[in-house]
Amino acid sequence: MDLDGVAVRGCSSKVEQSACHSDGCGFESRHLHMTKRNSGIEYGPGIVGKHLYRVREVHVRDHLIPLLTKNAVGAVKLDLALRGIALSPQDLGNRTVPGLIMRKHRYEQIHDLVRPIDVFGEDTDDPKIRELKREWVREQFVRLEELKLMERLSVPGKRPVLFVRKDDGTGQDFDDPDGRTGNSYVSITGGIFASGEMRTWGAPEVAFYLASMIAERYETDRRKRFLGDRYTEVPIGGGQWFRPFGWFGDESGEYSRPGSHVLTPFSISTLERGLKSLAERDLVLRHRISTDPIKRTRFERRRNLYTNQFAGLASEADLRSLNDEVQEYVATASELGLDSASDQ
After folding, report:
1. What pTM was computed for the model?
2. What is the pLDDT of residue 24?
């Protein structure tokens, strides 16, 4: 690959500019609309989620990394899946309460987005197996509720109504972080669910995925700033980066990351295991470099240049409109009497 040809595009309209996200360094990053912002993709049978969505870096730091450290990777994967399925105020045109998980999505279906379908046995139609899946999902819900990341509202005679909450742990309504101060985000590609990859991932793979998407965004922003008009579009989830693993947490201050950055202290050994696993699946490519691929300045030590391959887990042909989901969502919320936040 010609490294000089890897670049980012600038904003060409006021709409694009409004969607930009600043990381506090005085420049803007790529936007979700770059890969069809309002597109959906089938995560599993009967479940359509967002093709691309955002979670706050503070969510990764304050919730997801601690859960991974506690060996609660199931709760992390479920949280990410629910945030992909839930619709935000922007998706809904501010017409109703955001974050609702529609009742048509059964617990056993949600389970199958993040774990092997046959984890409890090959006869997936067995009522006992379906109940085991439901119970596992309920156990993860408890973890997420404790962190105020979701809520179950009781409805007499029916399954509780599920709501995904804002990912900063305040318990406020679900939203889409805009990238402003305190809302810096990492993009999540829906293809990790649609392809079935997430079912087989453990903590190392999830940690490396999150870290690589964070590093890709910072590197893409850096390239845009340096290259300007020479910067060309790269699909989110298909970019490059070369940060050492210690850069994410920067616990010693060795990498002098700006105070505006959200530090994400992933375990280096976990990232190393995740890299090994995902490289074997061709979901990340790497080769050694001795110079900065953009500035051409020489490094003190050789580094790995990583090229993410997550964008390839879904193709343009897989994308579909979210309009049907939005209409059904609004109708469901109306039936439940949840037309406005004051109705909860």
Report:
1. 0.87
2. 38
